[in-house]
Amino acid sequence: MITMNRPQRYNAFRAQTVHELITAFRLAWADRGVQAVILTGAGDKAFCTGGDVKQRAETGDYGPSPSGMFEIGNLHKTIRDIPKPVIAAVNGLAIGGGHVLHVICDLTIASATARFGQSGPKVGSFDAGFGSAYLARVVGEKRAREIWYLCRQYDAHTAERWGLVNAVVAPDQLLEEATAWAAEIAEKSPTALRFLKQSFNADTDHQAGLSNLAMSGLDLFTESPEGREGAAAFAEKRMPDFNSHVISH
Ligand SMILES: CC(C)(COP(=O)(O)OP(=O)(O)OC[C@H]1O[C@@H](n2cnc3c(N)ncnc32)[C@H](O)[C@@H]1OP(=O)(O)O)[C@@H](O)C(=O)NCCC(=O)NCCSC(=O)c1cc(O)c2ccccc2c1O
Fold this sequence. Notes:
This protein is of the alpha/beta class. The protein contains twelve helices and nine strands.
């Protein structure tokens, strides 16, 4: 079980958090005793609310890391490439890059109190890689476009109806249920599961190239006046004024 543990920031990630998540997934990958991974968030408020917008408003980036890079694209690829099923146990808000994380996981089990949505266009960000293309595979084009263009939040039962989550359980049952699913998986042939995961992935692996492009675009956009306005407005608890800073129409 891997737990994102920054509850004071609703488990939003910085570059250091992403580095630690990649390290944890790689350890689980190498450990023959691990047959499934559960990804969850600390506390009862949030699974993960994406990039730490306050950090971005403060320093213009997501802070330092051992590699010197913000490796969110590598985290997405690691979750897809680890040849063992990854179950997102969504214990609260899954927003922005935090929503993308659960979408990429093989399975999602949600607490009845969980809420789902994208927020990039509200805070000067976007994930035009797996965050949009793979989401559209999961929920269909119309719903994926609605999720990104309107930045609404959806409750767990709506997410289940849309095929975004596999099951909804009472909040106090979440980790027990996720562990039971992982135990059921652990009874199966690891090699069969490995081939199946790679087979499911093969159909969308080209989206890793799209993700590289999207992350390059995002690096430039978050440093632009329009991108910075989104993060500044969030940190200052005000509505953003994108139109005064827009870089292209
Ligand atoms: C998630 C919310 C809708 C929750 O609203 P609510 O009203 O319930 O709670 P608060 O707003 O009061 O939040 C409580 C407390 O937590 C802090 N917090 C919450 N989320 C974040 C966050 N993401 N970063 C920093 N801090 C956060 C919040 O400020 C409060 O602290 P106080 O001290 O003020 O009490 C709402 O919080 C919300 O809308 N949060 C922001 C969600 C968001 O926009 N996330 C980032 C999207 S961008 C992103 O994820 C992203 C992903 C990538 O992969 C990238 C890759 C490359 C470049 C950029 C990327 C990127 O930007």
